[in-house]
Amino acid sequence: xxxxxxxxxxxxxxxxxxxxxxxxxxxxxxxxxxxxxxxxxxxxxxxxxxxxxxxxxxxxxxxxxxxxxxxxxxxxxxxxxxxxxxxxxxxxxxxxxxxxxxxxxxxxxxxxxxxxxxxxxxxxxxxxxxxxxxxxxxxxxxxxxxxxxxxxxxxxxxxxxxxxxxxxxxxxxxxxxxxxxxxxxxxxxxxxxxxxxxxxxxxxxxxxxxxxxxxxxxxxxxxxxxxxxxxxxxxxxxxxxxxxxxxxxxxxxxxxxxxxxxxxxxxxxxxxxxxxxxxxxxxxxxxxxxxxxxxxxxxxxxxxxxxxxxxxxxxxxxxxxxxxxxxxxxxxxxxxxxxxxxxxxxxxxxxxxxxxxxxxxxxxxxxxxxxxxxxxxxxxxxxxxxxxxxxxxxxxxxxxxxxxxxxxxxxxxxxxxxxxxxxxxxxxxxxxxxxxxxxxxxxxx
Length: 445
Prior knowledge:
There is one protein chain. By secondary structure, this protein is α/β, with parallel strands linked by helices. The chain has 17 helices and 13 strands. The protein has 2 domains: 4-126, no CATH class; 149-443, Vaccinia Virus protein VP39 (Rossmann fold). It has a 7-stranded mixed β-sheet. The longest helix has 19 residues, at 395-413. The chain starts with a helix and ends in a 20-residue tail after the last strand.
């Protein structure tokens, strides 16, 4: 069989009913598509079976993780993903008015005999169905009550217990796994480690941490914030995580810095903390794991753990609101490979629930562009050390992270998702919030 690429390109356009915005390089070495467009390598016919079996991002992700789809050698991944995003993520309205992802909307065209014929030809090119088993990095079906303590522990373990050396390669020495806070590039100090240091300092300034105060860091990761707060501000900090690997690493750092009298690391769920009150609570990149049905409990629990006048800094990824919020569904690729049971909410919903729990929301700062820069830095770290990353975790796991972080960077850049720092106060009965009149003064170093 010769010139497989031309057949693939033509058949794909018949199925989609629109021009394919990328070039195809097939397993036989042939190539077809718009000149100068990013190249999608179809390295093995198995990729077609995966895509036909699960149209959309999950089928594409399985083929990518397995190495059956790839970029051209030496080609940047971002332009290819940017072109594919229009097929996977653009919303269309179905005949029932429910939102659909662009690639899945093509399924409604199967009533067209020409489309059905093109699908049959693609299936013949891909070989016999059913498709191969999903790559082993895909999470198997979860049992138990969604967002129960036990199920959340398993979900966190899937994501974070990949190996501390793997995360250090990707994140860098700061070991901070959340959006950094970047200086303008012209400043000359724009490195991810400097930006993460500045983010930790920003959080501490917003919380107005002082000597002798108690800080609770919910989802403390590898301990970077509690270490910074204890070292730079003299607080007594408790960091909680559900990851045993993170806790082991964080405790080692605490001991090495001689801060065991000031910092405690626990393997503990936020619902299991009962030794308040705390003067301040930070929750940085953790609330995405809480889930819609548990979010009010999360807000209530944190409110109850704060002393009157205490501050909460909630740093959380948010999605764009939908006209019909009941139509929201968890991203298939993210749920299967990255953050099991993770859910995103619009920032307005988050603010409302925090205020319903009793908090006074005093400041909201969007860091959307900052997260795009952070993710691009992490992708660069991963790609520079890809062979080592594959040895530390697995080839498939390294591919998962490359795809996830690059696609997320584009999602932030195109305003499909954002990230926000919400500063809230448990304002006492006399109404004294304790905040300065000009809150943005915490920007000053």
